Amino acid sequence: MFEINELVVYPSQGVGRVERIERQEISGAVAEFYIVRILSNNVTLMVPVANATNVGLRPVCSLRTGQAIFESLKDRSDFTGYTGQNWNRRYREYSEKLKSGDLLDVAYVLKELFLIGNDKELSFGERRLLEQAMGLVSMELAYALDRDQEVIKEDINEMFADVIHKDDEEE
């Protein structure tokens, strides 16, 4: 069970803070809800306490996990690229990974899209997914590593600087 003021992650929304736990009567049954405010956009979510883990609500990753995720972004040995896949199939696969709430999956999407962008121009949808993945990864790592989110984004962009600069050179 999560505590009031605890930082949590909600899939595809990012890091939020449990503001309170409310009891509400719905159709004659009393249920408890976490009231979670997403920190990036101030959206408030009501998450049933009984179903919180089933919908993917979880604590922010640990410092150790955050460091491991950051290191995994540097490792390009698992890059599969887009061989044999069209952008539509990739888009669906990456969207599912973002919705999973698993930080490793989200980091995988971030890395794949950066590296695919090294070889070809990303579609509008892929660029949107890249931005979403960057936001989710950088925000959670910022809290896990106790660093500013913008600094985390800069560090990630530096990791893929060869990708970014290659695109600039082609224009």
Low-confidence stretches: 165-171
The averaged pLDDT comes out at 89
User: For this structure, what is the CATH homologous superfamily of the largest domain?
Assistant: CarD-like, C-terminal domain
What order do the helices and strands follow? EEEEEHHHHHH
SSE map:
Layout: E1 7-10, E2 14-26, E3 29-38, E4 44-48, E5 58-59, H1 63-74, H2 87-100, H3 103-119, H4 124-145, H5 149-159, H6 161-170
Antiparallel strand pairs: 1-2, 1-5, 2-3, 3-4
Explain this structure.
It is a single chain. This protein is an alpha+beta fold and 171 residues long. The protein folds into 2 domains: 7-59, Thrombin, subunit H (Beta Barrel); 63-170, Up-down Bundle (Methane Monooxygenase Hydroxylase, Chain G, domain 1). The protein has 6 helices and 5 strands. Strands 4-3-2-1-5 form a 5-stranded antiparallel β-sheet. α3 packs parallel to α6 (161-170). The radius of gyration is 18 Å and the shape is globular.
Question: Can I get a quick summary?
Answer:
This protein is 50% helix and 20% strand.
Question: Which labels suit this protein?
Answer:
disordered C terminus; alpha+beta; Methane Monooxygenase Hydroxylase, Chain G, domain 1; 5 strands; Thrombin, subunit H; globular; 2 domains
